[in-house]
């Protein structure tokens, strides 16, 4: 599954790999990869495969789930579609509480003790995902885990999830995307090690401008 989804993300240009012209993330990190999973929503065949894979994963891993919660904003549509497939209620968690109206951070009905799975589009350093989990826990939810389309597999996110006692399971990952990209000519085979070097230590920019063997 992870290779099929990686292939699909590359085919619709939801993932760009550009080791010779790095992207700059909002955090300031220079990266050879940029992932825009919002594009999956505009590709019906790819979208259907992702949502069905989410439903299978959640049924297998979290059979007791009672509510799906999307992350704002990219996880909302996926949570809604998967909830429809599974016949479950859904809601979403804002990055911050509103400053008007009912001042909600969590949108949708959520009762204390309910078992929740969080749906995210991608995992980078994991900070915003931990904020979502904490907001749900403070509201009394039993957060079973996070499921996401893609993870960079960065050490920082793994450390944060371990500290928060929460598990993320992704449909595909950085290594799978890089492997398919090399096999299908999106990047040169010799660029694979440069990309892995970035993943292992994003703050070390020595991968830029030279081939790693």
Notes on the structure:
- This protein has 213 residues and is of the alpha/beta class.
- The chain is built from seven helices and ten strands.
- The protein has helices at 2-11, 44-61, 76-86, 127-138, 155-164, 174-183, 192-200; strands at residues 15-17, 23-24, 30-31, 33-35, 67-71, 90-93, 106-107, 115-123, 142-151, 168-173.
- Helix 4 (127-138) links the parallel strand 8 (115-123) and strand 9 (142-151).
- Helix 1 crosses helix 6, helix 2 (44-61) crosses helix 3 and helix 6 runs antiparallel to helix 7.
- It is globular.
Summarize the structure.
By secondary structure, the chain is of the alpha/beta class. It has helices at 2-11, 44-61, 76-86, 127-138, 155-164, 174-183, 192-200, and strands at 15-17, 23-24, 30-31, 33-35, 67-71, 90-93, 106-107, 115-123, 142-151, 168-173. Strands 7-6-5-8-9-10 form a six-stranded mixed sheet, with helices on both faces.
CA-CA gap between termini:
28 Å
On the 0 to 100 scale, the average pLDDT is 92
Low-confidence stretches: none
Elements, N to C (H/E)? HEEEEHEHEEEHEHEHH
Helicity, as a percent range: 25-40%
How many DSSP helices? 7
């Amino acid at each position: 599954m992870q290779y099929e989804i990686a292939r699909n993300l590359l085919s619709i240009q939801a993932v760009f790999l550009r080791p010779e012209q790095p992207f700059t993330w909002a955090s300031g990190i220079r990266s050879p990869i940029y992932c825009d999973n919002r594009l999956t929503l505009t590709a019906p065949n790819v979208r259907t495969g992702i949502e069905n894979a989410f439903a299978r994963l959640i049924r297998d891993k979290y059979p007791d789930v009672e509510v799906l919660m999307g992350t704002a904003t990219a996880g909302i549509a996926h949570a809604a579609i998967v909830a429809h497939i599974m016949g479950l209620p859904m809601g979403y968690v804002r990055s911050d509480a509103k400053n008007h109206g009912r001042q909600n951070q969590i949108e949708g009905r959520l009762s204390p003790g309910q078992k929740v799975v969080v749906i995210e589009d991608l995992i980078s350093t994991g900070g915003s995902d931990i904020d979502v989990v904490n907001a749900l826990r403070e509201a009394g939810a039993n957060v079973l885990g996070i499921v996401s389309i893609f993870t960079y597999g960065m050490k920082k996110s793994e450390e944060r999830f371990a500290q928060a006692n929460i598990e993320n399971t992704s449909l595909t990952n950085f290594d799978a995307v890089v492997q398919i990209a090399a096999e299908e000519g999106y990047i040169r085979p010799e660029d694979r090690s440069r990309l892995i070097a970035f993943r292992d230590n994003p703050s070390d920019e020595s991968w830029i401008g030279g081939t790693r063997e």
